[in-house]
Amino acid sequence: MILHPVKEEPSAAGRGDREESIPRKSIYRLSIYHRCLQRLRENGVETVSSEALARAAGVKPPQLRKDLAYFGQFGTRGLGYNVIQLAGILNDVLGTNRLQPVILVGVGNLGTALLRYGGFNKEGFEIIAAFDADVDRPRPGLPPVPLKPITELARFIHDHQVKMAILAVPAAAAQQVVNDLVAAGLQAILNFSPTILDTPEHVVVSNVDLAVELENLSYFIR
Amino acid sequence: MILHPVKEEPSAAGRGDREESIPRKSIYRLSIYHRCLQRLRENGVETVSSEALARAAGVKPPQLRKDLAYFGQFGTRGLGYNVIQLAGILNDVLGTNRLQPVILVGVGNLGTALLRYGGFNKEGFEIIAAFDADVDRPRPGLPPVPLKPITELARFIHDHQVKMAILAVPAAAAQQVVNDLVAAGLQAILNFSPTILDTPEHVVVSNVDLAVELENLSYFIR
DNA sequence: TTCTGTGAAAACCTTCACAGCT
DNA sequence: AGCTGTGAAGGTTTTCACAGAA
To answer: I want to staple B132 with a disulfide (CB 3.0 to 4.6 A). Which of B71, B107, B139, B215 is the partner?
Structure first.
């Protein structure tokens, strides 16, 4: 995905290496399990075995159990996992129980598309503002999110205690913007700009490069 | 990604296990190197060392050299790599030298956003048609891509020899659609639907789940 | 009996260190 | 001298296999 999505490797950066060192891949899968559990809950399923949940998430059962084991013992031997309970635990672990404010930086083609998409809001994230160098450029059909000049970025981050940003600026501008974001205290970046960002240890970056994902798939076609 | 962003693990599925077994991660990085080389070329750089290219791509130099070594020897000892030549080689390896037709399946919020984004076309991919169960639903500002009912999917894939699809249908519909795609001979899927797809060995899937990427980042915020 | 939790083994990927061209 | 190519070492993640609780 992207695939795996492409991706960083430090184990548990950001958090204070809680509980030894948990592979970042495990954390990533936790989000996937969480999603599967939500669907099971919607379907009224009360209990799920590691085998069933693993299949839904596309992993092998021992992997799922190992991943969960980093955080505790949540299952009942001979039975499986309580769907609601496990979903709640993952909510706590991932920090998705509280609504998380997010800003979008870069409202060009892709940024506009992401704004109009709106799918983030359903999952506990809210884009509370968008920033761009050119505020006046026409962008038909934008949802009612405040659009601000990028010069107000640092101030806004401070004032609203923003911790996460979605970055969709041109590659050439990305590093400079990131420097500003980091200086303002931002902690996590979902990067759609086609560049590898240079960030300090305590800032976490996930890269999603749509062109790279397609190129990568292209290799596997005969 | 992102990313990411998430991702499959079989080594060299799809292709006939050419050259022993090449890690999928290596292939993925090849796309990243390719992108960095393009930028270097634009800047008029003629030669690049493994150290410089690795830094641009966010990896360590031996990793870059190992990745390239799966496909041959392209550098000059004492000098480095010729930017244009290496870019050409990666074009060949990745199969991005020829224009690749792609279809979009699912023109809801996200699908529409992706269509309007249009960033794929620059990179050697062209969305030649879009499919949705409901063709009549209003979608303002769509680019001039043929929008067809999903019932014509199989026929179209056959007639146009389509090998790649971008999937952005609701989770509940995804597996059924994928079954149809696979039956029609499709080989690679970039999946934006928030589900793990069940596909035969010879079909490659990259998953990009935007909500999962955000959730994952959420963990690292204190 | 069933299914989780987990140490140990296997597989995998990354990094090192240096040999070998230019 | 400089930098690539690569076997071997090192580290991490995945998988196995079984002990142990319900």
So the answer is: B107
Q: Which residues, other chains included, contact A195 with Cβ-Cβ below 8 Å and sequence gap of 6+?
A: A171, A174, A175
For range B57-66, the mean pLDDT: 98
Alpha helices in A162-209 (DSSP H): 171-183
Residue B151, min C-alpha distance to chain A (Å) = 25
How far, in Å, CA of B196 to CA of B35, rounded? 28
Q: Roughly what angle, to the nearest 10 degrees, separates helices A171-183 and A153-160? A: 40
Reported as a single tens digit per residue, the pLDDT across B86-110 is 999 999 999 999 999 999 999 999 9
CATH number given to A24-92: 1.10.10.10
Is pLDDT at B16 greater than 50 in this prediction? Answer: no
Give the residue nearest to nucleotide D1 (CA to C1').
B78
User: pLDDT tens digit string along A1-22?
Assistant: 222 333 333 333 345 444 468 9
Domain range list for chain A: 24-92, 100-219
pTM: 0.91
CATH of B100-219, one of 3.90.650.10, 3.40.50.720, 3.30.450.20, 3.30.720.120: 3.40.50.720
CA of A63 to C1' of D17 (A): 14
